[in-house]
Amino acid sequence: xxxxxxxxxxxxxxxxxxxxxxxxxxxxxxxxxxxxxxxxxxxxxxxxxxxxxxxxxxxxxxxxxxxxxxxxxxxx
Length: 76
Ligand SMILES: [Zn+2]
Hints:
By secondary structure, the chain is an all-alpha fold. The protein has one domain.
């Protein structure tokens, strides 16, 4: 007989916070559109992230273009 503790699976109290959070990785903002916050919804529209919130394959390139495009506005 071993004295192993019985493995109870009590995960009912774990609330899925992702339901009320932007899908983008590491983002904790509340979603405003299509499960993304406003910023990441723009990213999603621009193809920087997929609808699941993961980064696009060529994210780095796209992100640079996106930043460049959006930083022009600040300069003006
Ligand atoms: Zn976000």
